[in-house]
Write a structure and sequence with these properties.
heterodimer, A: 410 residues, alpha+beta, Uridine Diphospho-n-acetylenolpyruvylglucosamine Reductase, domain 3, Vanillyl-alcohol Oxidase, Chain A, domain 3, 2 domains, 14 helices, 18 strands, globular, B: 468 residues, Uridine Diphospho-n-acetylenolpyruvylglucosamine Reductase, domain 2, Alpha-Beta Plaits, 5 domains, 5-stranded antiparallel beta sheet
Chain lengths: 410, 468
């Protein structure tokens, strides 16, 4: 950024909102470092940043902490905008099981607020406690607990957002049922900052289950566990999540059951009869340690790519995923996704993953890069929506951000 | 299409002059009943080429006038598109046409041990296409969520007859913005869904249904807050107030509700049999702590069905009390229920109107039913004014103007209570993404910016921002 632009932005923001660093991983994820980062402390400061950026011709990339941004390649200079200074809990009524908090609030801080009331956010993407609420909503990632609780898009009840051109919108509301107008909030959730900057979020909370049991079944090869995983996923009960992990010559099926002790005991028995297996079981901290280790298992990898297909094609997806050299995998047996993690990649990595994409698309599914080195192009790996759907989505994006202020390119 | 499925005779058009909200009546210019996506596309293409407005219609059970015709508009009815195309038990999804009746999907899924969760009170007649348009709820959406949670893919016919496939199970959900989620609840203003893909759930092993009896509706409201705050996860919690109990018990849907009580709570838990008695015991204790006179339990499946039939047919039963009924719909934060119910009672007294409440208490989704006689102009005016006050009350406590019935034509006048001008303009911009010439279901959802929008919108965030 030229010195003039730096001076220029300092004229629209107070000193405490300037010269902030973001996670070092952001530049790696986006292939280019931001010119600078700003942390506005109010909605009006965000409006000022967007208006300034529009005049200066600089793109704005909204980030949470900057540590979890999906790989993408901005076409030019950009500044990173973090909502981290908007981190307060605005409304928390435990008996309503809803909370409104600033988009920059860390999930771990919100959890601390909820703990005394035995409430929680049942979302389990990797490293969820270190994500911001706004980042979580923008990513749309829920994790395997969506099997029982549904995806995050259904639990974001409302949000205040600033569109690319500075318009402020309050979308949704504070109540669990709300059809007062078109559901414009839905495309914002999961839009990864493409439509607007999220400044606050209202979420539905859930009571912490009395028992959180983790059932485990181990095998040397993940292929041996696919039948048990699918039998569990089609059993006449609804587990909280069903996850399959593999790597370094071992594999594990992990099933979480939530509920009262008597319910969980009965459901474990029913599952074991239905799937014809005997699980090891762990409650409390022991079980959580195992579940969290599985959830975060691929985090340090150089490359992470997620594959999707119908859940019934889980075995085929895993065959494709485990064929990638040095891969470890994390599969969601209910959601039909497999995340492939590879510690390091060689020069032919882009071709390998492009081929993987073609094979997954032949199954009727799709692929998406979650983590890439800066020399790999995510466009080669990410599946695309149909042309007609993409064209419609482009119009919606234009309605939010007519000047392409966010990310710079459509 | 041929003449058989194009209705133009004025007598036959009368059947289409309103939906479930009969206060508004406009006969359409014609009704067309296509049988396939291709026919819908051809019909929309032909009508839009002439600039003729298209009003999509399911079973016409909507309660906000969402399927009301315009004088020059043509209703495109989905009644003939009633095929369940596939049920895939392995992936727990079903593909179907929009004219499929909600309850029929659950019936057809039953042999696979599956069911479709959203259960509007009209589920024996309403269609999945209508449910998608309205993002319908129902009693058991408390635990399981409303229609939008279950819709995974759509085929839609848009302006000019263009057919687009949105989403779909097994696809990368992040390949596009959530266009399926945006389309659900668009009230026929974006286009017509001609194929719907929905998720199914496994039928639960067992169920416990309780009937809590209270002296006052406020006490029942407090019990709801206590139950929901206790960590329990009921499948449904419904309030039926005294006037509704009387109407139901005097009708063919008599469920054994206690005539003379101030209110009854129908509370249901489902899941694995082993834990349900404990849940029911805890809910019973919550009711008794809040002053319940008695808490009964359904003794067998027939008794349970009777309790639910009474609840679901309550709107129909009210025909015994008054010739006309306005079913209102709003949502408030659950903790504000006792206060809001008391104030609604007060509003009813002030306007000398009988208001009967039967609603999804666990969600805070109110249905104050205003009973009246349309022949009485003064009473009609009082209904209108009382409705406005109820809507304002719900918004003032942090709620909204509709939880599940949609805005349609009826709630347009209240949209400024919850949206400022910038937000309403955004709704228009988003509609135009799908329907640039505004030929799908015109005059619904978005108030007329010139005629209806109050310049003094409450809490105009943009004005505040600009001023700061």
């Amino acid at each position: 950024m030229s010195i003039d632009l730096t001076r220029s932005i300092s004229e629209v923001l107070p000193a405490e909102a300037l010269d902030l660093t973001v996670d070092a991983g952001l530049g790696r994820a986006l292939g280019v470092e931001p010119e600078t980062a700003v942390a506005p402390g109010s909605v009006s400061e965000i409006v000022a940043v967007l208006q300034w950026a529009g005049e200066a011709g600089v793109a704005v990339v909204p980030v949470g902490t900057g540590a979890h941004v999906n790989p993408r390649r901005p076409s030019g200079a950009y500044i990173a905008l973090t909502a981290r200074r908007l981190s307060s809990v605005e409304i928390y009524e435990p008996d309503d099981l809803t909370m409104t908090a600033g988009a920059g609030a860390l999930v771990r801080d919100l959890s601390r607020e909820m703990d005394p009331h035995r409430q929680w956010l049942p979302f389990d993407p990797p490293d969820v406690q270190n994500r911001t609420l706004g980042g979580l909503a923008a990513s749309g990632l829920t994790g395997p607990l969506s099997a029982a609780y549904g995806p995050i898009r259904n639990h974001v009840l409302g949000a205040t957002v600033v569109c690319g051109d500075g318009r402020v919108l309050r979308l949704g509301g504070r109540v669990v049922k709300n059809v007062a107008g078109f559901d414009v909030l839905k495309p914002v959730v999961g839009s990864r900052g493409d439509l607007a900057v999220i400044t606050s979020v209202t979420v539905r909370l859930f009571p912490v289950p009395a028992v959180d049991r983790v059932l485990m079944l181990d095998a040397p090869d993940v292929a041996e566990l696919v039948a048990a995983a699918r039998a569990t996923a089609t059993a006449p009960i609804l587990p909280a999540s069903i996850v399959l992990t593999s790597g370094a010559g071992s594999a594990r099926l992990l099933v979480r059951l939530h509920g009262a002790a008597a319910t969980v005991d009965a459901e474990q028995r029913r599952l074991e009869i239905h799937a014809g297996v005997a699980f090891q079981a762990a409650d409390g901290t022991d079980g959580m340690d195992v579940a969290l280790a599985a959830r975060d298992s691929g985090l340090g990898a150089g490359v992470r790519v997620r594959l999707w297909a119908l859940p019934s094609r889980l075995g085929e997806l895993l065959d494709l995923a485990t064929a990638v050299p040095d891969a470890s995998t994390l599969a969601d047996a209910c959601g039909g996704s497999v995340t492939v993690s590879v510690p390091e990649v060689g020069p032919d990595a882009e071709a390998t993953f492009a081929e993987l994409r073609a094979e997954v698309e032949a199954l009727g599914g799709g692929t998406r890069a979650l983590q890439l080195p800066s020399d790999l192009d995510p466009a080669a790996i990410n599946s695309e929506a149909s042309r007609a759907e993409a064209e419609l989505a482009g119009r919606v994006r234009f309605a939010f951000d007519p000047d392409n202020a966010l990310w710079g390119t459509p | 299409m041929g003449p058989t499925y194009v209705i133009t005779h004025p007598d036959r058009l009368l059947a289409y002059e309103s939906d479930g909200l009969t206060a508004y009546r406009v006969p359409p210019r014609a009704v067309v009943l296509p049988a396939s996506t291709e026919e819908v596309s051809a019909v929309v293409s032909a009508l839009h080429a002439e600039g003729i407005e298209v009003i999509p219609r399911g079973a016409g059970t909507g309660l906000s006038g969402g399927a009301l015709a315009t004088p020059n508009g043509v209703i495109v009815g989905m009644a003939r598109m009633n095929q369940i195309l596939s049920i895939d038990p392995e992936n727990r999804i079903a593909r179907l046409q929009p004219g499929v009746i909600n309850a029929r999907l659950t019936e057809e899924a039953k042999p696979y041990g599956l069911y479709y969760a959203p259960d509007p009170s009209s589920q024996s007649t309403c269609t999945l296409g209508g449910n998608v348009a309205e993002n319908s709820g129902g009693p058991h959406c408390l635990k399981y969520g409303v229609t939008t949670r279950y819709v995974t893919g759509l085929t839609v016919v848009l302006a000019g007859g263009r057919t687009v496939r949105l989403g779909g199970a097994g696809r990368d959900p992040y390949a596009s913005l959530d266009m399926v989620g945006l389309f659900v609840g668009s009230e026929g203003c974006f286009g017509i869904a001609t194929e719907i893909e929905v998720g199914l759930l496994p039928i639960t092993e067992s169920v416990r249904t309780l009937l809590g009896i209270f002296d006052t509706v406020e006490a029942a409201g407090r019990a709801v807050t206590k139950i929901m705050g206790s960590g329990l996860m009921p499948a449904a919690v419904e309030i039926i107030d005294g006037p509704t109990i009387e109407a139901v018990e005097a009708s063919v849907f008599a469920a054994g509700y206690p005539v003379g009580a101030g209110a009854a709570l129908v509370i249901e838990f489902d899941g694995s049999d082993a834990g349900l008695d404990e849940d029911a015991d805890r809910a019973e204790a919550c009711c008794l702590e809040e002053g319940a006179i008695e808490v009964q339990r359904a003794t067998d499946p027939e008794h349970r069905l009777k309790l639910w039939r009474g609840r679901k047919k309550a709107f129909g039963a009210m025909g015994r009390i008054a010739p006309d009924l306005l079913v209102q719909d709003a949502t408030v934060p659950r903790t504000r229920l006792p206060e809001v119910l008391a104030k609604i009672d007060e509003i009813g007294e002030r306007y000398d109107l009988k208001i009967a409440n039967v609603f999804h208490a666990g969600d805070g989704n109110l249905h104050p039913n205003l009973l009246f006689d349309r022949q009485n102009a003064d009473e009609l005016d009082r209904v209108d004014r009382a409705s406005k006050e109820i809507m304002q009350l719900c918004v003032d406590v942090g709620g909204t103007i509709t939880g599940e019935h949609g805005v349609g034509i009826d709630k347009r006048q209240y949209m400024t209570l919850v949206h400022n001008n910038v937000e309403l303009d955004m709704l228009t911009r988003v509609k135009r993404c799908f329907d640039p010439d505004e030929l799908f279901n015109p005059g619904k959802v978005i108030p007329d910016m010139d005629a209806d929008v109050d310049a003094g919108v409450d809490a105009d965030v943009n004005a505040e921002v600009k001023a700061s």
